Amino acid sequence: MRISDSETSELADHLEGALGGANHCVYKNYPQKDGSVIGTVSRIGFPRQDLITSCTFGLAHADWTDKDFPDRVELVGAWNDEKVEYSRVLAVVAREAIRQHTLPKPGVIFEDAIKAAAIEGSSLAPLVSQTPHALVLFPYLWDKAFDKCDLQAHSVWFLQVVPLFDDERDHIEQHGFEAFEEILSYEGARFVDLKRLSHAGTY
User: CB-side exposure of 185: number of CA atoms within 13 Å?
Assistant: First the structure.
């Protein structure tokens, strides 16, 4: 069941507030082959001057109650290159979550999501050779701005989508997501740097 029109307006207000106000926000729609649209809302220079933040707007309509998850989800990401349309990756992951009916939760990998997004948006092409996949995490950059939004009848949780190397995917599949999180806690996450080295390269 979709969230109501009034809840959609509530969610839009929350997103604009989280990004510092409507005057900072840029909306973009990504039409899908089935006629639906996945939207994003973005802000340049947030949460730091060198970063761009983008969030999906519409995934919250997807119902996950059959996955024993009564709430809703939107996806958020941040990156450090204005020339790269990383918001398209968020839209592709949202699309695949809906198409595959895969609940996006921390530790879930959407294989070849960035490769698929690059086919649709050439600015992403340089990422494909190093980070073709996308990983879902708890957000770690925005304090409480992208945590949870309580609407009239639903709660919406925000989850971060980051680019993933082949060897990082392999490490998670072999050792588990918690082991990968231990590496991140030791090294410090570098996901906003689109030219970063693999976190799994020496493990």
Answer: 6
Which pTM was predicted?
Answer: 0.95
CA–CA dist 94, 61 (Å, integer): 11
Helix axes 87-100, 113-120, angle to 10 degrees: 120
How many separate domains does the chain show? 1
Nearest to 116 by CA among 100, 102, 96: 96
Whole-angstrom CA distances from 23 to 27, 41, 134, 143, 151 are 11, 12, 30, 21, 23
Its domain, for residue 102, covers 5-187
Do residues 128 and 164 touch, judged by C-beta distance below 8 A? Answer: no
**pLDDT per residue as tens digits for the range 80-113:** 999 999 999 999 999 999 999 999 999 999 999 9
Q: Is residue 54 part of a domain?
A: yes
- The verdict on residue 199 lying in a domain is no
- Alpha helices (H) along 41-176: 87-100, 113-120, 125-128, 166-175
